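Hello,

I think I submitted the iron/sulfur cluster job twice by accident. Can you confirm which output corresponds to this input? Input:
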Amino acid sequence: MMKAAKSSPAHLYVHVPFCRHICYYCDFVHGIYREQSADAWLDALEKEIALRTLPKHLDTIYIGGGTPTSLSPAQLHRLLSLLDGKSPYEYTVEADPGTIDAEKAAMLVDHGVNRVSIGMQSADDGLLKAIGRHHTHADTIEAVSLLQKTGIDNLSLDLLYSLPGQTMEMLKDSVQAACALSPKHISVYSLTIEENTVFGKKGMHALDEDTEADMYEYLRDTLPAYGYHRYETANFAKKGYESRHNLCYWNYRDFLGFSCGASGKEGNVRYDKTRSLSEYLKDPLAAETIELTPEDAMFECIMMNLRKKEGLLLSDFEEMFHVSVFAAFGEKLQALLKEGSLCTDGKRLYCSEHGYDILNSILTELL
Ligand code: SF4
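Support: Only one job matched these inputs. Its output is below.
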């Protein structure tokens, strides 16, 4: 497995707060794309980059959203140009089918983007429509083929499950359709319906817990048969194609978060940039910051690391906190080891197969 860089912060997340349409389940920070707003946002982002000192080189850049590819070609070019010269090892841009064309794909390659994460969500066109997506599965096939032909073969596909109206058969078809496209990485997300979404306002519900659990088990057991190993609770990859950027979060590394709606962590400070576009335009550094106590940081570190199949590297924890994880979590940790929810081989602390299924209760115990 690839290792995230240890120098800090060598990872940058940039949030693009625009989408062409709003999906019925979505509560990310975004608005409908308008050319003038996007121009003003780019002005603010340029100011933010000038006000912060970016390292000369970055290990990873991740441009997410929103939908980065909802920007016009000229705006996408401007955005990518702002980050030119950082030579990241992994450079990811999120894209939605239907918002990527040959011009934008070539532009991504020209600026060094080497990984694209595509919001496929499902292969069922009826279901896509019912959740407010504005693309079909044919659009996903076209986007994948276009990107592969343009030279980006490190593609990740997102799949959603537990959607209102989704059957197990539909999920199986989507998994088959996704694997047929040979992406290097697949992320699976269970739907949660937040109050402020279109679904939330309509009082709609995700599927019941048992069906959701059955769907997750199906994904967990089936994707490895297609060659995708589960390296994090919701992420599956071909060997060597684990997301280097996301591993920086799970390895509890520092990362920069730019633009409204982004978060970052630098040392013992975690910050959430303002979620308001208008506030961001006035003050590109507007953010809420939280100073983490050593106890907060140690808990966050174990929480993030246990999401990975390989768990926590014991020496990493000691390097970060100058105390062993066993000393820090004492009897609570010993009890979890004794009952077999957690295991250690002397180098790592990780969940057993059973423990991985009850990760939330393990974390509650440790809290
Ligand atoms: S799910 Fe993605 S494309 Fe849909 S509204 Fe949210 S951010 Fe935009």
